[in-house]
């Protein structure tokens, strides 16, 4: 369903019969800044921006009950995953089994604390925090009395979402199994299957969250400013849509403000978006060189050490006949980071000459780069799992290499670059170079 963008004189305020501009349920698209009026939505329906196709709202059936049930089930699955053996292996009478938490502890033991922190946060800590926040909010909404700190907790959900990577960790675990299957006998524990269930339930929880309904239930919905006019960019009217709760707010003379409903800081455009994006892209490009030159891990087999770079691991998997896995690693660790660097760099340049149909194409490219960036963490998770699992002394062991930290930094920096880039810049009229440098 497309959001309503009829001329102002055809809209009526709810409850009044006068043909004047409605100020209820207005939204400014986060990607193109088009101001629209949300239509009534039934469960299963969603409203998309008529200008760029970005999803503005999606209605679910029994959203509070659905999200609460899924979040609690996911937390239970995570507790089980942390309580039992994850994977075990046996080679020449020597065996080892690990729990999920050992993937973090082993990295700390090999002097890779930053990589360990990133694995712990993205796989366990942030997902658990997200699920606990969802459960807290829905319990309050079901009792019709929001619990303390609900607004602040609700604000945090959108910021946590990009950094949860339980599903990527599952792919990393599968790649790890294939890597060692030819060298040792590997078996999966209860924790592995529980974590797979947890990853699925976490994904379903994020999809079940009806943020539009949730914010309305938490704090109502104040009317948009009186001069709001649908079918035109919000910034041209001195307005901005809150990136967190969606409410349309008026900005001050400097293009800044604060959301009346959730308290989030507002800007007509993200301050110095292009400079920040360029800085992050340049830093990620510099770090991408050592990430590929130095070994990401070293495998010791029968006393012989064999360092392996990212591309070396892809070649080894291809030679072993594991063509699908080699392809996955090549795409996630080579094509995706390079493609994201090039795509975001090109979008920063394209801001100065955006126009017409190309705006939609470039916006879709931005959505793609934002979506795929997290999947590059597959290689980091493979290292974390293998380092913890393969520990049989000189017979067979795997240690992390210096490229692990560099590559993890590349992934984080490119994700931050996508977050700092403001896609609304692609839809504004081209500006001179001096002005665009301050965007």
Keywords:
15 strands; four-stranded antiparallel β-sheet; disordered C terminus; alpha+beta; 439 residues; three-stranded antiparallel β-sheet; globular
Q: What oligomerization state is this entry in?
A: single chain
Helix segment tally: 14
* Protein structure class: alpha+beta
Which parts are unreliable, with pLDDT below 50 for 5 consecutive residues or more? 5-20, 433-439
Strand composition percent: 5-15%
Sheet bearing the most strands, described? 4 strands, antiparallel
Task: Sketch the topology as an H/E string, one letter per element.
Answer: EEEEHEEHHHHEHHEEEEHEEHHHHEEHH
Q: Quick one: overall form?
A: globular
Query: What gyration radius follows from the Cα positions, in whole Å?
Result: 24 Å
Count of distinct strands: 15
Terminal CA distance reads 32 Å
The pLDDT mean sits at 85
Spatial order of strands in the largest sheet: 13-12-15-14
Instruction: Give helix % range.
Output: 40-55%
How would you explain this protein's 3D organization?
The chain has 439 residues and is α+β, with helices and mostly antiparallel strands. Helices cover 51% and strands 13% of the residues. The chain contains 14 helices and 15 strands. The protein has helices at residues 63-83, 102-109, 113-142, 150-160, 166-181, 190-208, 211-219, 273-293, 310-319, 323-350, 358-372, 378-389, 403-420, 433-436; strands spanning 26-28, 35-37, 46-48, 55-58, 85-91, 94-99, 185-188, 239-241, 248-250, 256-258, 265-267, 297-301, 304-308, 391-392, 396-400. It has a four-stranded antiparallel sheet. It has a three-stranded antiparallel sheet with strand order 6-5-7. α10 (323-350) crosses α13. The longest helix is centred in the first third of the chain and has 30 residues, at 113-142. The chain is globular and about 75 Å long. The chain starts with 25 loop residues before the first strand and ends with a helix. Residues 5-20 and 433-439 have low confidence and may be disordered.
